[in-house]
TrEMBL record:
Organism superkingdom: Bacteria
Keywords for this protein: ATP-binding, Cell membrane, Membrane, Nucleotide-binding, Transmembrane, Transmembrane helix, Transport
Pfam families attached to this UniProt entry: ABC_membrane, ABC_tran
Xref: SUPFAM superfamilies: ABC transporter transmembrane region, P-loop containing nucleoside triphosphate hydrolases
Main location: membrane
ABC transporter domain ranges (all copies): 332-565
Subcellular location: Cell membrane
Keyword Membrane: yes
Protein name per its UniProtKB record: ABC transporter ATP-binding protein
Residue ranges constituting the ABC transmembrane type-1 domain according to the UniProt record: 19-301
């Protein structure tokens, strides 16, 4: 039952054990008053004398038991919550570590909504199971067991009558679990799909509105909500007849005991006092059994939930070693690189050398594989074939942190944290002084907009950097890269959002960032990479040609076509 959750409980297992112990003692305290009651009822019915002192004592014992029950129950729940929340913490940290070891590309594919749901909602549901189902479930199971045992001590014939209805109720409950478990996978899958669609619907609301796709988007949402309803109803449909049966039978534990027990008393086979006591005790059986069994249904969910969480991020971890960067230079080689997204190969054996201290540009049609190649260099994904080396050392044969120290990657969409712009730049090199951060911002042409925002460099970036324009975000990212001052720079459409007015400044800033470094640059605006030391033309995942701008204009049809298209678009821009 605890197989899946046990590794995450660790030392907090002892708190769960303490919780169970407290709740069990609390249960014993809750059962004892029936015996005290019996001590009063039996002499009264038998016509024996009962002293006031004894009655007062029995009432006092009852009060002590009730107080003990309440105190221990609360203590037990406090232990179980302590254990539950620490276990949730362990699950979250362990998932986060697993997530960290995954290829970054695979994480992105999961999507923000899904990851958020796993880390908050899905894990939170486990709390109910650990904090309540375990102690309360066990307690509610123990009460009836103890009470029934006690009944046997009072009068075994009446006790047998009392439990006669239980097997029927238990059978109905077993049938419900069997039927329900078969439908549980589909029910949860429909719930997960609905949640993802809701998150996507909210995230994509802007696009939906701009393109007037409300109807279509809403239809998909409605469809998923409706299917969730259908799966839930299908689940209930198979469960409810059994649910109705056991819910009506189990609480009526005195079903047989009342008529048949009365007849036993009339026959003189049982005493009236025992009969009354057993009827009283029977009230302490039905409801707890129902409660315990309702918790029992949660245990398969516990394993299921943890299974699902683990499955979500069970991609093979990124290949890396414990070694530092020990390369002899900062030259880069792609050797027969093959790469597939799922089953579709998008790079088909790329051989490419990036000389140390030189700028190499990647050009090609949209979808030719430029960004993918850049992402492979920063080890977002593992290759399907071939290798990439930095200074002769395979990038899989070093720690990912060591590789990150050597490379600055500036992409089109750089994420800014919701802290100050200063702190966002400081990420580049956390040990940098304020002067160095300000200098990096100045060199990345941030000064002009920093003068406009209310607190200058100490202005908050907003959620994901939403307080800034795309171009401003890119300049902050560039400042970050400047501060990092890594020997290898990868620029993937780093100037995509820059307006023509700022482009020149930005290019000047980029020239500063890349001076003396090994640079891989991807740019759609071909004139920005015209002076690169080497230009590589990608065509549908193959390296079609390489050389300088002039060489390629002479030798490559593909490059000539791209250059012509770039020139035409520049002319078109002027006319427009
Ligand atoms: N995460 C992904 N999952 C599946 N396929 C992908 C993914 N990212 C890219 N692709 C596919 O891989 C191929 C290469 O994409 P890539 O982004 O590398 O091209 P690109 O040359 O950089 O394009 P662009 O110039 O438009 O940015 C394309 O066919 C694209 O559809």
């Amino acid at each position: 039952m605890f197989k899946k959750v046990k590794p995450y409980m660790g030392e907090y297992m002892s708190y769960t054990k303490k919780a169970i112990l407290c709740v069990c003692i609390a249960i014993i305290f809750s059962v004892l008053p029936y015996f005290f009651l019996y001590q009063i009822i039996a002499p009264l019915i038998g016509g024996q004398e009962l002293s006031l002192t004894k009655v007062a004592m029995l009432i006092a014992f009852t009060a002590v038991c009730m107080a003990g029950n309440a105190l221990l129950y609360v203590k037990g729940l406090s232990y179980s919550h302590h254990s539950a929340y620490n276990t949730l913490k362990n699950i979250r940290i362990s998932l986060q570590k697993k997530l960290e070891a995954q290829p970054l590309g695979a994480i992105r594919e999961l999507g923000n909504g899904r990851i958020k749901k796993v880390f908050t909602d899905d894990i939170e549901t486990i709390e109910i199971l650990l904090a309540h189902a375990i102690p309360e479930g066990i307690a509610n199971l123990l009460i009836p067991v103890i009470v029934i045992l006690a009944m046997f001590f009072v009068d075994w014939k009446l006790a047998l009558l009392c439990i006669a209805a239980l097997p029927i109720g238990m059978f109905a409950m077993g049938m419900m679990f069997k039927a329900g478990t078969a439908k549980m996978g589909a029910y949860y899958a429909a719930g997960a799909k609905m949640n993802n669609t809701i998150i996507e619907y909210i995230n994509g609301m802007e696009v939906v509105k701009v393109f007037n796709r409300d109807g279509e988007s809403y239809a998909r949402l409605e469809n998923d909500i409706t299917s969730y309803r259908d799966f839930t109803l299908a689940w209930y449909k198979v469960c409810w007849p059994w649910m109705a049966l056991y819910s009506s039978i189990i609480p009526c534990i005195a079903l047989f005991a009342l008529p048949v027990g009365g007849w036993f008393v009339l026959q003189g086979w049982s005493s009236l006092a025992d009969f009354i006591l057993i009827l009283c005790m029977s009230f302490a059986v039905g409801t707890p059994v129902l409660k315990a069994l309702s918790f029992a249904g949660k245990f398969p969910q516990l394993n299921y939930k943890i299974d699902e969480l683990e499955k979500l991020i069970d991609n093979p971890p990124l290949k890396q070693s414990e070694r530092d960067f020990e390369g002899s230079s900062h030259g880069i080689r792609f050797e027969n690189v093959h790469f597939s997204y799922k089953d579709t190969e998008v790079l088909h054996g790329i051989d490419l050398a990036l000389k140390e201290g030189q700028m190499t540009a990647l050009v090609g049609e949209s979808g030719s594989g430029k960004s993918t190649l850049a992402k492979l260099l920063v080890h977002f994904y593992d290759l399907n074939g071939g290798r990439i080396t930095l200074g002769g050392q395979d990038i899989r044969d070093m720690k990912i942190e060591a590789l990150n120290d050597q490379i600055s990657y500036v992409s089109q969409e750089q994420f800014l944290f919701n802290t100050s712009l200063y702190e966002n730049i400081l990420i580049g090199r956390p040990t940098a002084s304020r002067e160095e951060v300000l200098e990096a911002a100045r060199r990345a042409q941030c000064d002009e907009f920093l003068a406009r925002v209310p607190q200058g460099i100490d202005t908050m970036a907003g959620d994901g950097g939403k307080m800034l324009s795309g171009g401003e975000r890119q300049r902050i990212s560039l400042a970050r890269a400047l501060l990092k001052n890594a020997p290898v720079i990868v620029l993937d459409e780093a100037t995509a959002f820059i307006d023509p007015e700022n482009e020149e400044k930005m290019n000047a800033a980029i020239s500063e960032v890349i001076a003396g470094k090994t640079v891989l640059v991807i740019a759609h605006r071909l004139h920005t990479i015209k002076n690169a030391d080497k230009i590589c033309v990608l065509n549908q995942g193959n390296l079609a040609a390489e050389g300088t701008h002039d060489e390629l204009l002479r030798s490559s049809d593909e490059y000539r076509r791209l250059w012509k298209a770039a020139e035409e678009s520049a002319v078109w821009e002027v006319r427009a």
